[in-house]
Amino acid sequence: MKKGVIIVFVATLAFAASACSAAIITIAIEGVVDTINDPCDLLGGQVSPSDIITGTYSYDTTVPDTSTNPNTARWVQDGFGTEMVLHIGTFTFKSLSDYRLAISNNSYNQDGYAVISSWNYPVETIPIDRIGWYLNDNTQAANANLDLPLDAPVLSDWDYNYLVIDGVIDCEQFFSIEGHITSATLVPEPLTITIMFVGSLLTRCRKYQ
Q1: Is the pTM value of this prediction over 0.85?
Q2: Where are the beta strands (DSSP E) in the chain?
Q3: C-beta of residue 133 within 8 angstroms of C-beta of residue 115
Q4: What does the angle CA 162 – CA 168 – CA 124 come to, to the nearest 5 degrees?
Q5: Is 112 helix (H, G, I), strand (E, B) or coil?
Q6: Are the CB atoms for 190 and 13 separated by under 8 Å?
Q7: For residues 198 and 209, what is the distance between their CA atoms, to the nearest angstrom?
Q8: Averaged in consecutive runs of 10 residues, what is the pLDDT profile of the chain (209 residues)?
């Protein structure tokens, strides 16, 4: 039994090390729909105020900052495992490519944090023009610098919390879902999950010895 546990431990550590080498951070978010504007009923009345929003966004920490503004930083994500996904009821809104994480520090008298995707998979043939989450802090205290965030934003640090999903067919056929995020948490990295799994396995082994 002990030999088997050691084999599992080594194998899972190897897997975790491989996963961690990609340096992907995943943030899980949950929110609430505040308003919906859907004049042509493109969503069939299936999204309403107070509906729950769940999802994640993942970004690669090795991607360089592409901003040329001294008060902002921007990391464009277009690699394996980096995406933004939101679920509302039966609908899934998902980035296709080139989604970006951006922050600002003392820019136009405020700090900012934004996750924005302008290239997305369609939903029921409806082009999704934007999936975006925006945080602003007028006290300019939320961001101490322009370093890439390695944890979920602390929502209480921000004055403005706005999520939007825009679907546009033409100037008359469109919808807009607006809401806000109520929780944001860092998803445990593979190594943490591995340690927890092996610890649980070792405990069970001792129990049945």
Answers
A1: no
A2: 24-37, 52-60, 72-77, 84-88, 91-97, 99-107, 110-117, 119-120, 128-137, 160-168, 174-186
A3: yes
A4: 100
A5: strand
A6: no
A7: 16
A8: 46 41 88 97 97 98 96 94 96 96 97 97 96 98 97 98 97 96 88 41 48
Percentages helix, strand, coil for the chain (3-state, rounded to 5) are 20, 45, 35
| pLDDT value, residue 206 | 52
Cα torsion 181, 62, 116, 41: sign: negative
Q: With contact defined as beta carbons under 8 Å apart, do 167 and 127 qualify?
A: yes
Q: What angle do CA 24, 51, 112 make, to 5 degrees?
A: 45
Nearest 5°: the CA angle 86, 111, 30 is 20
Q: Please calculate the CA angle 22-76-165 and round it to the nearest 5 degrees.
A: 110
Rounded Cα distance, 209 and 191, in Å: 27
Q: Which residues pair with 61 in a beta bridge?
A: none
Overall residue count recorded for the chain in this entry: 209
